[in-house]
Design brief:
Layout (H helix, E strand, L loop, with lengths): L2 H8 L19 H13 L7 E5 L5 H8 L4 E6 L2 H14 L3 E5 L11 E4 L10 H12 L3 E6 L3 H9 L5 E12 L9 E11 L1
Parallel strand pairs: 1-2, 1-4, 2-3, 4-5
Antiparallel strand pairs: 5-7, 6-7
Helix pairs in contact: 1-2, 2-3
Length: about 200
Amino acid sequence: MKKKDLEIELEKVPRFEDPDPFLEQYLTPASIAADVLFNAYANGDIKGLKVMDLGCGTGMLSFGSWMLGAGSVVGYDVSKKAIDLAAAHAESAGADISFLLSDIGDVSEGADTVVMNPPFGCQNRRADRDFLKKAMGSSDCIYSFHMAETLDFVKEFVKKNDREIVYNKMYKYDIPNTFTFHSKEKHSVDIVVVNIR
């Protein structure tokens, strides 16, 4: 599969119907998801492996991992609405993906690779830390999205857990006007995707 074809398929992933600002429910842009997952695939971190998507939302990274040949994919999210949308899309697409309703702290299984776009901590301070801790306790290979300005913090945080960031890439992330507190039609933020090992 070419990266452009993957992006086209990921455009079909459902949007949040009633996004929760506290959970920072923004759909990962298909172009960014495709680039990150294609890189993970090229690194040998997807095909034939167990991939876990923490805070999966409606399943953008889960579906991309499945399309790139992951051996098994499981997505976790605390939002029943998001899980229901993801599961319905998986069924209609014939995708063999498990979507499970769970708080991040209750996830107990491990995986070969974790992919995640956790809350950035804008509405719920330090929310991303719980995701990082869980990911590092679940896998030796993690691809995670963060605000670009927090890169130094993330580096130190993973270092304290005997891990390191072996790769990072910056992206422009367009956040559409979704909630009442949004004053602009869309807002662009700089994010960084890190590969932790």
